[in-house]
Amino acid sequence: MIKKQVSKILVPMDGSKNSKRGLEMAISVARQFGATITGVYSINEPPHSEFRGVGSVRDSFNDEVKKFMEEAKVLAAQNGIVFKEKLMRGDIGYNIIKLAHNKKEKFNLIIIGSRGRGSIKEMFFGSVSNYVIHASKIPVLVVK
Questions:
Q1: Is the pTM for the entire model greater than 0.70?
Q2: Rounded distance, CA 103 to CA 84, Å?
Q3: Which of 42, 50, 81, 106 lies at a CB distance of 3.0 to 4.6 Å from 95, suitable for a disulfide?
Q4: Domains in the chain: ranges and CATH
């Protein structure tokens, strides 16, 4: 008999096709367990960004993120799943792990796309998914 129960799933998202597939897999798993999904969009923003003063670039990007997260929320709702969204800024991998290990949140599973929008293309996994796999203390499902 399986004793582990999945009640809260963390899904890192970046707008890529792989992150959408990760969301679809998370919805499938959530339906089986009656779990909720938290979609996290972490923006890699260095402390001293040269774009800090360019408001129109930042606003345009924020609009894109909001649109993507709204689409994710609608897809989850259409499948009867509660979807919460979280936006973070800073190092992407670190932010995902920090949120996943937050004792208050109590996530049981991370479902992540194998590669995202990152400019560095690794051979099998993206750099963020690779980091999450190795740093996570909770199970990680990688979707290709």
A1: yes
A2: 17
A3: 42
A4: 8-143 (3.40.50.620)
Looking at beta carbons, which pairs linking 122-130 to residues 24 or more positions away fall under 8 Å? Answer: 126/18, 127/93, 128/12, 128/92, 128/93, 128/96
Structure-token match 């949120």, residue found: 99
pLDDT digit of tens for each residue in the chain (144 aa)? 556 789 999 999 998 898 999 999 999 999 999 999 999 998 887 665 555 555 555 666 788 889 999 999 999 999 999 999 999 988 999 999 999 999 999 999 999 998 755 444 443 446 899 999 999 999 999 998
Q: Other CB atoms closer than 10 Å to residue 110's CB: what's the count?
A: 25
Asked if residue 16 lies in contact with residue 60, where contact means CB atoms within 8 angstroms, the answer is no
